[in-house]
Amino acid sequence: MFKKFLILVVFLGLFSVAQVSAANIEIINNETGGNVTVNYYIRQYAPQHPITKEVITLAKNGTPMVVFGNGSGKNVMIVAGVHGNELPPQLAALKLIDYLADKKINGTVYIVPFLIPSSTATSSRYWKGQNPNSIADHKGTPTNRIVQIAKERLIQALGDFHSTQPGGTPGTDAVFCSRTPTYESYKIAYYISKNSLSKLIAYEKAGLEYQGALEDVCNLEGIPSVTCEVLSPHGTVAVGSVDRSFMQMILFLKYNNIILDASLSISQVVTSANTIKNYYESYKRLPSNVTINNNYYNMGQVLYLFCKATLNINSGSTSMISVGNLKSATASYENYKRGIIYKSEYLKVARNIRGFIEVYNRAPNYASTSRGKIPFHKLVYMYTRILCFYSVNGRLPGYVTV
Prior knowledge:
Strand order of the largest sheet: 1-2-3-5-4-6-9-7-8
Number of helices: 12
Structural class: alpha/beta
Strand content: 15-25%
């Protein structure tokens, strides 16, 4: 018999206590348990929030599955840890659990952060000497248990999240899919690829290239499924790999309308500018993403928000600002001379960037100015300084130095 636990996720405020979300945690396989904190990377980098701590503790008893939602709406599933030595997606799944804990869920989300906790604990790729991702069609295996649950819970989309090592297959951030028998698999993968730097790898028919893979078996069962990969050596966590896996998961949920984009106020955008400015000045680089109003935004989205906020402030508009899914810059080309850019020009540059993004659905690698070509990362930093000046002085600066 499988066990089910109810976790109430609460935030403690100075004057009130409010239940934000309720999550069920089930143990769906009693034969896979392990102490995942034995793994250095899980111990070191796992979120330290009540719900994730509970998930990690329960993993000693078997495969934990966290359920958000009340069974209404679309049912989707996210799986990580099919291979215990692929650590970034497992950490990303824990991060996703924390992220969804205070979100309004439009549907029901099933998250399996560690399919085989005993393998995660030892950073092992195999289960009983077998590759778990080639035996999803064999009864009694951990991956086949996921197929059974997907059928029982009427799952309408499934994402299987992995990491790939340099020189491996595919050896780059990617998303796998097939066009038949479930064309929806291709549509999900195309959306994730279009809105990230993940390579789209599409096969005509499921089950031919990777017989017994979880994605293929689910597609053959009529459950639209994709496999997402991020680049990171096996048994370790490459810089940025957890964030990229997390964003693939967010895009998977957004495609299925589980979470929706939210509009932001000028004040919220300005506050985020201060956060990014401090980060850039401390680490001499941009963060992978930033949280604004409990939503994650990549730096391409951030630049768009900064440009729109700057233009709105200049025009006196207090309208809310929204941004859809878009890619960050693909490179960062620079060839400029240090100097001053006056207000009229940085407003023109903001309009040009906004227009570019709205046409191409990605951030530009650089912007042409009177000082030359300013690279993407310096553009983000420039607009953080403009908005931070506004937050202190209540007006836009007359110029900005680059």
